[in-house]
Amino acid sequence: MTTFVRHWGELAAAAAWVAAWIWIALHIHALRMRVASGGGESLWADAWNRLAKNRMAIISAWTISVIGLACLVGPWLLDATYGITYFAQNLPLGAVPPSWSNHHWFGTDPHGRDVLVRVLVGGQISIAVGIVGGTVAATVGTLYGTISGYAGGKIDEVMMRIVEALYALPFMLIVIVLGAVLGAVFEEKQKEQDAADAQQQAPSAKIRRTESGAEDAKKQEQGAKGSSIFILLFVAIGLVAWPTLARVIRGQVLGLKRREFVLAAHAIGTSPWRIIRWHLIPNILGIVIVYTTLMMPSLVLSEAFLSYLGLGVPAPLASWGSLIADGATVMDVHLWRLAFPATIMCVTLFAFNFLGDGLRDALDPKLRGVD
Fold it and tell me: What digits encode the pLDDT tens for the residues 40-59?
């Protein structure tokens, strides 16, 4: 029961991950059944059929789903089966190569920590950066580009000049500055909250506070700080990755707003926001999905680069980037510390790229009806 409570967040995320893939599979099945029953083939049904014929895209989708599920469920299974946890150290053991006999299948680091569980937990962080950062960038870029393209005139010109100004600044510099600013704001809020909590505590409660209680409170504080850094990292990377998508969406909207169905909606008095929501965004959703999928590998690499520079997640937590950085310094003696995280990250990035290419081919209207 203790193991279950310790990993309840990972198990909940794993359940959500599985539920999302089941929903996608059921939706695809429903589209195929509709076509088989003679209900007509929509653009989405035709896209799913073409995607199903792309073996590399399907293999990539399965690869991403398996790696994601392993990263979420793997730490819980290792803890429940062999008692291997992420923070557990075994200094007398030290760095040992991979072995089946001691259950350290990816070996250990100099602190005796299991490399496999660190790779799995690091995968949670790296994949989350790609998914959450991609979602933030897609949301901001879609709304910004749609509003700019539909408004036109001076509004469009000003909004595009802002995008061009963001293009002139280095990507990593913006991420570092934005992360530092948001981090300073969060630290100030956290200090105010800690001071308010300290004032609310009764003096007797402070006297009865034991050493173990203080240690638990310190761990909770470190966990809260780590979680806040994750959120800041997700938001910072996502907020600087949207300009390219915004320009793509703007170009699509400039063509769509002159189409008959948009002109008819405008003629009957439909509000601009309703036109954007119900007529423009659904018609550019395919482009958003494709671009977001193709953008995720670059976001994962950006997080890996920041972690490589020491600007990513703080120790003792680790992502694939920080694990690769640590392994690169000792690759001549402890090759397994570099080989395993680098291999898994490369496989994941290739899978995202192949899936994005498959979605691009499947959702291209020019290829509809072409095998």
Answer: 556 667 777 788 788 898 89
